[in-house]
Write a structure and sequence with these properties.
InterPro entries: ARM-like, ARM-type_fold, RSP14, TPR_DAAF5. The protein is mainly α. Helix content is 73%, strand content 0%. Helix 2 runs antiparallel to helix 3.
Length: 200
C-alpha cells in the first residue's frame, strides 16, 4: 500500500519515471502517487513533483491530464503543497483545463483549484489569470460534474473585494443551484450567496 511505497523511499524515483515512461505506465505512476500523497507530501515536493505534474496537465492523453490534476488536488490539500502549486504557477494551467473536453479533467482541475485558492497567494494568482468566467461557466453548465468544486472555488474568490463585485452580477447563477438535485451543491450555493451578499 501507500505506506510501503513511502517507507521504501520510492516517491522520488516515481516522480523521475514520469518524465520518461510510456503513457500507460505514467497513468499507473500517477495513480500510485495520488494514494501516497494523502499520507505525506514533502518527499514528493522535494523530488520536484509539482513542475513535472504541471507539464502532465498538457499531455495529449486525457487520462493522464485527469490523473495529474488529481495528484495536484492531493498535493494542494496540504499547506506546503498549496505554496508549491502557487510558486510553480500551476493555477493558470488548471484554469485552462476547466474548458477541457473531458468532464473528469474539468472535475479534478476544479477540485485542485478549490484547494489551491485557500491561500491569499492562490486567490490573487487566480484573479490575475481571470479565473471567474471559466468557473462560472462550469457552474451554469447543464450536466457539469464539476459544479460543486467550481462553486467552492468561486466562494473563495468572493472573499476578495474585486471577486465579490464581479460575482454580485452573477448571483442568479448561484440562485439556480439552490434547486440542484445534489444537496451538496445546494448547500455550497447557499454559502456562496451568503459570502457574495455580505455587507462589510
Amino acid at each position: 500500500g501507500a505506506g510501503g511505497v513511502l517507507q521504501a523511499g520510492l516517491i522520488p524515483p516515481l516522480v523521475l519515471k514520469l518524465e520518461t515512461e510510456l503513457d500507460e505506465i505514467q497513468e499507473l505512476i500517477l495513480g500510485t502517487l495520488s494514494n501516497c500523497l494523502r499520507v505525506e507530501v514533502s518527499e514528493a515536493l522535494a523530488a520536484g513533483a509539482v513542475p513535472v505534474l504541471k507539464e502532465k496537465l498538457s499531455h495529449p492523453y486525457s487520462a493522464i491530464r485527469s490523473k495529474a490534476a488529481w495528484v495536484l488536488l492531493e498535493i494542494s490539500s496540504h499547506a506546503e503543497g498549496k505554496i508549491a502549486v502557487f510558486e510553480a504557477e500551476v493555477i493558470p494551467v488548471l484554469l485552462s483545463l476547466l474548458e477541457d473536453a473531458q468532464p473528469e479533467v474539468q472535475v479534478n482541475s476544479a477540485g485542485a483549484l478549490m484547494f489551491a485558492l485557500v491561500t491569499p497567494q492562490g486567490r490573487s494568482s487566480a484573479m490575475g489569470a481571470a479565473a471567474i468566467p471559466p468557473l462560472l461557466t462550469l457552474v451554469a453548465e447543464e450536466t457539469s460534474k464539476a459544479r460543486l468544486n467550481a462553486i467552492k472555488a468561486l466562494t473563495l474568490l468572493a472573499e476578495l473585494p474585486e471577486g465579490r463585485q464581479t460575482l454580485l452580477e452573477h448571483r442568479d447563477t448561484f440562485q439556480r443551484c439552490l434547486d440542484d438535485p445534489s444537496e451538496a451543491v445546494q448547500r455550497a450555493a447557499e454559502i456562496a450567496i451568503t459570502v457574495i451578499d455580505w455587507k462589510p
